[in-house]
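Hi F.,

I've been meaning to write this up properly since the lab meeting, where we talked about keeping a consistent format for the predictions we share between groups. The idea is simple: the sequence comes first, exactly as it goes in, then the structure tokens exactly as they come out, then a line or two of notes. No screenshots and no reformatting. I'm using this chain as the first example so we have something concrete to point to.
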Amino acid sequence: MEVVHQGWRRVPCESCRAVRRYLSFAEREEIAILYAQKLGVREIARRVGRAASTISRELQRNAATRSGCFDYRASPAQWHAERRACRPKVSKLAANARLREHVQSKLSCRQHWSPEQIARRLELDFPDDMSMRVSHEAIYQALYVQGRGALRRELTACLRTGRAVRKPRRRPDVRGKRTIPPEIMISERPADVEDRAVPGNWEGDLLIGSASSAIGTLVERKTRFTMLVHLPRLPELAHGERGWSGRGAETVRDALAATITTLPRELRRTLTWDQGSEMYQHAQLKIAAEIDIYFCDPHSPWQRATNENTNGLLRQYFRLVWAGRDGFRTEGP
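Output, unedited:
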């Protein structure tokens, strides 16, 4: 197998990586020998050349327990792994009618639960029944993936997005024009923002409604405290222009500055936003609000996931309150 050299490290080629994605029988034999020698997980991982998490999962999933004690042997472990890898599999929602009916009732337009809310609530509603567990991704696949459609397809209309087709997370063929200096991209944001240890780090976006109306949203990452920013209409501009609806750069700058400056200085650390044209005057906003501003990568709204989740709840609220009125549109912006 060809090996590519990068400096002093020997890195396997692409075909080698594909072969080493799963543990081989020879690796399982080596793990069994080292485990019998009472070596720790990290030491076994170092000798086998795998991640410690891989070894830990292997010992937990594929150990032989028929004798009543925890024992790891290569042959039973290989059998467990091959059995688990068999495809196609019957999805949990298709096999468990009780779980399927419960999920469908929560997804219905009468209750408006999201898949993630359903998945987390199952642990509280059925604490002693492990058969009543399903991940939110499994629910999405049951709705959108052909061949795994254990749930009624029309329930997609009850999701907050209302999309009949799932939107791909990445669009590598679409590249936006870079307008943000590299020194204020999210990759340059302080590392302590990611762990949510300290309050004062905010995520923001606009909720776009009918007739070009808009509301600004600010969500604090640690506490999830949310503030709505009023963007007033500007009747002196021509109807139909973005500035008329309050979404212009100057209007957004002034409204955000007025809202953010109501907070104590120690709660104004960072603000993370999408690369929208409404933040064209971010430099002036940084000075006026005394807050560091960072921008997500193009087409990467999941980099400010706290704000995206909150916006989904707000869209659902406005849709229910203003249904049939001149309010927010039912689909997402």
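Notes:
Confidence is low (pLDDT under 50) at residues 1-19, 172-176, 238-244, 326-333.
The CA atoms of residues 73 and 195 lie 39 Å apart.

If this format works for you, I'll send the rest the same way.

G.
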